[in-house]
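Q: Riboflavin synthase, please. Structure only.
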Amino acid sequence: MFTGIIEAQAQVKAIRDEQANRHFTLSCPFTHELKIDQSVAHNGVCLTVVALEGDTYTVTAIAETLSRTNLGQLKEGDKVNLERCLLANSRYDGHIVQGHVDQVGICEEVRDQQGSWLFRFSYQPQAAGNVTVEKGSICVNGISLTVVESGENFFSVAIIPYTYEFTNLHAVKPGDQVNLEFDIIGKYVARLLQK
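A: Structure for Riboflavin synthase:
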């Protein structure tokens, strides 16, 4: 389980395809602390460390992951947001994040708010449980954010300077895809209301 509080960014050092799988080799500030079999969220996608070599580590994304997330668009040199799993004795700063991306969204607008930024994202109604509510939680590229405006198949979030600079949101522009994980509690409520 994760909280959506980004710990660092990793740089993609190499990408290798093997049948339908894609192996990503990355480098980050805490590579030396990682171990094989450890789960790490990459742009909000929970992936398992499968190899360690020097200052790099490797994770593997299967076809399902590549089709539902923006990881398939990564290139060497790109940066991804990282979060290691929640420790049982940690503060719970974000919201419940599983690292299971529901779908991608499209950045529709980035508006400078004179000291902060307002991002508007749209998404296709792929599942009945993918909804947002104003002041509710949403996970964008692994970042726990509060919804400012919520509509049918779109939402906006306000970004403070720290989040803008410390995550890969500063590189997101209109037309770009982002990974979306909708609030797990909201998804369960929506599912129960369907019955």
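A: Brief note, in case it's useful. The mean pLDDT is 93.
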